[in-house]
Automatic annotation (TrEMBL):
Assigned protein family: Belongs to the gas vesicle GvpF/GvpL family.
InterPro entries per UniProt: GvpL/GvpF
Main location, first listed in the record: other
TM regions (residue ranges): none
Originating organism: Streptomyces flavidovirens
Renumbered residue ranges of the record's region Disordered: 128-154
Protein name in UniProt: GvpL/GvpF family gas vesicle protein
Keywords for this protein: Gas vesicle
Annotated compartments: Gas vesicle
Superkingdom to which the source organism belongs: Bacteria
Lineage, top ranks: Bacteria, Bacillati, Actinomycetota, Actinomycetes, Kitasatosporales
Low complexity bias (residue ranges): 142-152
Pfam families xref list: GvpL_GvpF
Length: 266
């Protein structure tokens, strides 16, 4: 069976080894391919899944995509504990070791510049959700034992609808205000910030509607203070939820280092 090379990340040579138990897409620990002053983190993968045509089909399969992304992120997360990696985009594949070396050569200057910019830094994600409060006076379930209640008047119905709409609008306004304050304050404590498109709740399965989806580049040694600031700014509001994730490898700040060369290096 022909094997290709899946490339997770690029980093500098480093002392130490990856944490025990981390596995790549082949179920084995990823291999470190040294080339000059750079190192690629790779795994062998079958051509029947990762050659151009089958890969295109797989990327439209949500289950396959989710499983692959989970392994991809786990490998990069493990790398982050021992060095500063430049994460590559999902499904960066080269034909063989020579293709990986060509990838490193073609993107060398950008990789080096990105590594210098990201060295010693991690990414923290902050999301704000508007989670409208439930109707304060829900109607009781009809009961066979109790007599049926008289239908509400048209005026009562409209009043109730208006109250519900005003409650939802109030939550959105508070979530927007919290988002603006958080982003302004956290941007001052980070070396860089990135605003991403709000996530679709139907895909993320998170409760409520995503209002803020931001990432912040923070020196690793300042992470504790950054986390404390997020917690200080998070409101005690049942309708507004703040979610903090990280520390991650700096995905949002790696730019496109080496990505243009990936196809040519196959």
């Amino acid at each position: 069976m022909n094997e290709l090379r899946y490339v997770y990340a690029v980093t500098r040579p480093f002392d130490g080894v990856l944490p025990e138990g981390v596995c790549g897409l082949d179920g084995e620990p990823p291999r470190l391919l040294h080339h000059g002053d750079l190192v690629a983190v790779v795994s062998p993968v079958p051509a029947e899944d990762f050659a151009e045509a089958p890969l295109k089909e797989h990327l439209e399969n949500l289950d396959w995509l989710t499983a692959t992304a989970r392994v991809h992120e786990a490998v990069i997360g493990a790398m982050t504990t021992v060095t500063c990696p430049v994460p590559l985009r999902l499904a960066t594949v080269c034909r063989d070791d020579s293709g990986v070396r060509r990838l490193l050569d073609a993107g060398h200057d950008r990789f080096v510049q990105t590594l210098e910019r990201l060295d010693g830094r991690v990414e923290w994600g902050v999301k704000v959700y508007a989670d409208p409060e439930p109707d304060p006076s829900p109607q009781p379930e009809p009961s066979q034992a109790a007599p049926a209640a008289a239908p509400a008047s048209g005026r009562d119905y409209l009043r109730r609808r208006l109250s519900m709409r005003q409650a939802r609008e109030g939550v959105w306004e508070r979530a927007d205000a919290v988002s603006r304050t958080l982003h302004a304050e956290l941007s001052q404590r980070a070396q860089a910030a990135a605003l991403h498109r709000p996530q679709d709740s139907r895909l993320s399965e998170a409760r409520g509607q995503n209002v803020l989806n931001a990432a912040y580049l923070v020196p690793r040694e300042h992470s504790e203070e950054f986390v404390a600031e997020v917690r200080r700014l998070a409101p005690e509001d049942p309708g507004v939820r703040v979610e903090l994730t990280g520390p991650w490898a700096p995905y949002s700040f790696a730019g496109q280092a080496g990505q243009e060369e990936a196809g040519a290096a196959r």
